[in-house]
Amino acid sequence: MAGRPHRPPAARAVLLAGLLLAALLLAACSSDRDPSSSPTATRQPVSSDASASTDATPTATAAGERDLDVDRLVVPAASSGLPPGWRERFVVPYGPGPESLGTAPGGDSGSLDLGPEYGAPAPDGTWWFLDAAKRRLAHHDADGRYLGAVRLGPDLLVDGTLFQWQLPHVLDDGTLVAARQEPDRTWLLRLRDGRPDQVAVDGSFAPTYSDGRLLYGSSAEGRPVAVDPADGSLRRVAAYRTPSGTPFTLTPARRLRLALPDVGVARALPLVTASGAPAHVGLQVRAGADDVLHVFLTGVGEDDESVQLVGATSIDPRGRVAEPEALPTPFPEADPGSPAQLVLAPGSSTPALVYVLPDGVHVLERTRPVDLPAP
Predict the structure, then answer these.
(1) Which of 163, 164, 201, 318: disulfide with 17, CB 3.0–4.6 Å?
(2) pLDDT at residue 218 above 70?
(3) Is residue 184 within 8 Å of residue 200, measured between CB atoms?
(4) pTM above the 0.70 mark?
(5) Which are the contacts of 308, defined by CB distance < 8 A and separation ≥ 6?
(6) DSSP conformation class of 44
(7) Domains of the chain in sequence order
(8) What pairing do the DSSP bridges indicate for beta strands 185-192 and 176-182?
């Protein structure tokens, strides 16, 4: 049709999957005023902040001492490098060879090269990446060295050719799971003992968190749900749970609402920028084996919407919240758009970040335990 921009099949697949996922995440945002709502993870606009290039490789920077028990969250502007206690663990570059990950055309007229749909660490320390362009699941060791790959057959690709899997998680038993959206339901990809298959979910949801056994996310109505990857069964829940079974809720609106029912904690911390203006953020959350919650925050402030806010904080089992530390922006042009940067291996208490950058997929990790207040 004249005047209509052409999108290659891979780009149309990414666009459709992104629209369906965005609809689920927006539904979750509509319930942010409800303290029992699920954690939300929304992708915010890319910043034009000159202090943090969207395409730069993160490097270490110095920072002052952090406050380990705050009563409001000052979400920092994206940094140009990594804060103390973080390092770049490895980079998997793009390329045609099997040891490299692929890129697919995206954006209007396929003008952008989009990277993989992120990755997740396994209990044995290895990593799985959703290599959409090569229609495979790429396996790498703890230092990023290529171990092999599992190619997906036509039965696991939309229309036999299109890779639409997103939001990877690895469960306690080593099963890799990912999701794709259809208008009326979600499908889960499962890789168990080297054999991939899929199972239909009893409804629609966006799996943004896992306790190692179940997947958690928001339903199409914006309510928190849990899904069992063994059979796709879906049920409403009042809270997410840590790997040890501790319930919690964490929702951002103008305040970060935190509830830890087992210890009687219910807090609402204002979300602000460094100037004190209200901040509008989405979050990703992971829980360690020690019950510490790790939170990745991205958004913009009302004082300057051109500045990308990016920070990470931690919440101890007693509900004390550490001052956020500034991190580089995770939104370069190569980013496929899924809220899947924050990861944590089953059985671990150390968070990591996956950044899909123009030169490859960068895995960033903490080099020391998270600072928390003394008991």
Answers:
(1) 164
(2) yes
(3) no
(4) yes
(5) 44, 45, 46, 47, 49, 52, 77, 78, 298, 300, 329, 331
(6) P
(7) 9-354 (2.120.10)
(8) antiparallel
